[in-house]
Write a structure and sequence with these properties.
heterodimer, A: 323 residues, mainly alpha, B: 325 residues, two-stranded antiparallel sheet, 2 strands, 63% helix
């Protein structure tokens, strides 16, 4: 068991290394040096050039630049945002707390709706219900997220005449804590529902095809043949086996925390991580951009590590194979 | 002898691909998706023919400030717009935008741009996916390294690459790279392609792992056929089904990603119209000119939906465990 853990950990470390290299290399993609990113722009002052040189140690060889960058980011905390000279990590962490409720509510919505939907369509394959959900689900996957968001905002604002943008209603500071909490909760509704729609759609399709594969397999036929009631066949024998792969998906949710939220947080003026990333890209605040890509990748790696372990606990076949 | 004649293939035998095709045709939503994709192709090609060239039939770049923000099916203002600038159809079929450009012509031209973004991006992704998946599947057990040091197997290396790619938040990475490189249609195609090959690579690898032990591959090997040739001529054609599926779904993904980039201001830059940037420009006039949002938005929805349904139908048809008989 221990050797398996060590092997998994060793692999993740390698992945982490390459992730850090790619995150850092992204800014060197620009033609010439990162310091020459925009030489013709009159707003690109010598002062800025100096900041680039300092932040990325451009006078040193590449491997040293790489090493110094991560040391500054993680250990000495010298790496500062170009925009306001704040240390990068605390700045990201502050935004993280704003994104967290959005992410949690969205994830809960996804998992609560995707599974019943997918299982119900698989069991009633080719029924009217299945056909309608298939088309609706694919429509939700296919609609550009911001288009749906604008239609929804338009509808909600014109029908209910309420404020939906931002963390809380503008100008409603200093009211009773209960009211403030209710206000904040309401402001959470639209962005998290919109953020979850695509997730619900995609996950329910996975659940459906996974369930279908299991329902068509031999052991389910055996369970039926030996006269088990249909409910026991479906929910005990089939469902348990169909759910196994979803343990691994727990880990893959994490990148959504940053990548999936860029558009939604921009639309709703939500001061979270995704919007921080977008603002950083707009103002060419590279320390933030690189760190966000890197941190998101690290979180994903931790998530997949967790799901690998869960998988070994849940599925004895994997455990045996690994040993 | 008797057994020989009995086991001879009779009329009843159907090849697997024929079986998959039959099962696909029975899936009506998937067939509808395929038909919509074909219509989209035709529209996109017609769009190029009608809107490109010195004297385009429908001019998508003609600015008519007197006729800005006219709703669909409205007639041009004949006093303010000179005769040669009037829309060719005599009517603004889908209205005009904030510069008085004909939305119908822009949508037609944008169809081809969106389609080519999807195709080139998917072409790149599929090429990388087939190459890496093929190498990992066929040469998977070969150990590579520096000098005499045998560090890891080819399979581990490719699996590692896939892990690295999957670790990044895909959309944010695309956004970063496009922003650093400056958005242009070529950059967007390349970046979307470079970040979305992992699915194809995994499918191809799995398929080739299953195929490489089969007799026809052994036979080719015994005849002295080289490795790359076995991969390209014998293995890949047999593993094409999952590639087709992920390519179809990939086009849908690329069109959506381009529209997302356009929304954030990093899409294909003007004056080149894509459905994504028509939509993201239109959203500024959501209340005054809702057709500028609804027309491109719905068009993207329908086309992406068509590719998704088509791809999903192919996936079900090619997967014996999901196939409906």
């Amino acid at each position: 068991m221990l050797s398996v853990l060590l092997r998994i950990g060793w692999k993740k470390l390698w992945t982490l290394f390459f992730v850090s290299v790619i995150s850092f290399a992204v800014i060197h993609l620009a033609p010439g040096q990162p310091s020459q990113i925009d030489p013709l722009n009159p707003r690109f002052t010598p002062e800025q050039l100096e900041r680039y040189r300092k932040a990325f140690d451009l006078d040193k060889p590449l491997y040293e630049q790489y090493w110094l960058f991560y040391r500054k980011l993680l250990f000495t905390r010298e790496l500062r945002s170009f925009k306001d000279s704040q240390p990068v990590l605390p700045k990201i962490f502050e935004r993280f707390w704003n994104s967290l409720p959005l992410f949690l509510v969205g994830t809960i919505l996804i998992w609560c709706y995707a599974f019943p939907l997918g299982i119900a369509s698989a069991i009633r394959r080719n029924s009217l219900f299945d056909k309608v959900t298939t088309v609706v689900v694919f429509a939700l996957i296919s609609v550009p997220g911001f288009y749906l968001a604008y239609l929804m905002i338009n509808f909600v604002v014109q029908t209910f005449h309420v404020d939906v943008i931002g963390l809380r209603t503008f100008g409603r500071e200093g009211v009773a804590p209960v009211l403030s909490l209710m206000d904040r909760t309401w402001h959470l509704v639209l962005p998290s529902v919109l953020g979850a729609t695509a997730g619900i759609a995609v996950l329910s399709r996975y659940v459906r095809s996974q369930m279908l594969e299991v329902i068509n397999s031999d052991f389910v036929r055996t369970a039926r043949a030996k006269g088990l009631p249909e409910d026991a066949v479906l929910y005990k024998h089939a469902l348990r086996n169909a759910l196994l792969p979803f343990v691994t998906m727990l880990g893959l949710l994490v990148p959504g925390l940053i990548g999936g939220s860029v558009i939604i947080e921009t639309i709703f003026a939500w001061p979270g991580i995704g919007r921080l990333g977008y603002e950083a890209i707009l103002s060419r605040d590279y320390p933030i951009v690189i760190s966000l890509n890197f941190i998101a990748a690290v979180l994903t790696l931790l998530g997949t590590l967790l799901s690998d372990l869960l998988y070994m606990v849940a599925d004895p076949r994997i455990r045996l194979e690994a040993e | 002898m008797a057994t020989l004649t009995e086991s001879r293939p009779s009329e009843v035998t159907i090849s697997p691909s024929r079986l998959a095709w039959r099962s696909f045709l029975r899936n009506r939503t998937a067939v509808a998706g395929m038909l919509a994709c074909i219509v989209f192709f035709v529209v996109a090609v017609m769009g190029v023919l009608l809107t490109k060239g010195e004297e385009p039939v429908l001019d998508s770049r003609q600015v008519r400030l007197a006729d800005k923000l006219r709703p669909p099916l409205s007639l041009p203002n004949r006093q303010a717009v000179s005769a040669e600038n009037l829309p060719r159809l005599g009517i603004y079929l889908l209205g005009t935008d904030d510069l008085g450009r004909d939305v119908f012509a822009r949508m037609l031209e944008g169809a081809f741009v969106s389609l080519s973004v999807g195709f080139v991006a998917v072409g790149i992704a599929v090429a990388i996916g087939i190459a890496l998946g093929g190498i990992a599947g066929y040469y998977g057990r070969v150990r590579i390294g520096i000098g005499a040091l045998r560090l890891m197997t080819v399979d581990t290396l490719v699996a590692g690459l896939i892990d690295v790619m999957l670790s990044f938040p895909a959309f944010f990475l695309i956004l970063t790279v496009v922003a650093v490189l400056k958005p242009s249609i070529l950059n967007i195609m390349i970046v979307i392609g470079l970040t979305s090959w992992t699915g194809t690579a995994r499918f191809v690898r799995a398929e080739i792992l299953a195929l490489r032990e089969q007799d026809f591959v052994q036979a080719a090997h015994a005849l002295g056929v080289s490795g790359p040739r076995i991969i390209l001529r014998h293995l890949i054609p047999n593993a094409i089904a999952p590639v087709l599926v992920s390519a179809t779904l990939g086009i849908a993904y690329a069109i959506l990603t381009e529209s997302g980039l356009s929304f954030l201001g990093f899409g294909v830059p003007p004056p080149e119209p894509t459905w994504g940037n028509i939509l993201s420009d239109g959203k500024n006039f959501l209340f005054d000119a809702s057709w500028l949002t609804i027309i491109p938005g719905t068009a993207i929805l329908i086309v992406v939906l068509a590719f998704n349904l088509f791809g999903e139908g192919l996936r079900e048809a090619f997967n014996p465990k999901l196939r409906q008989l």
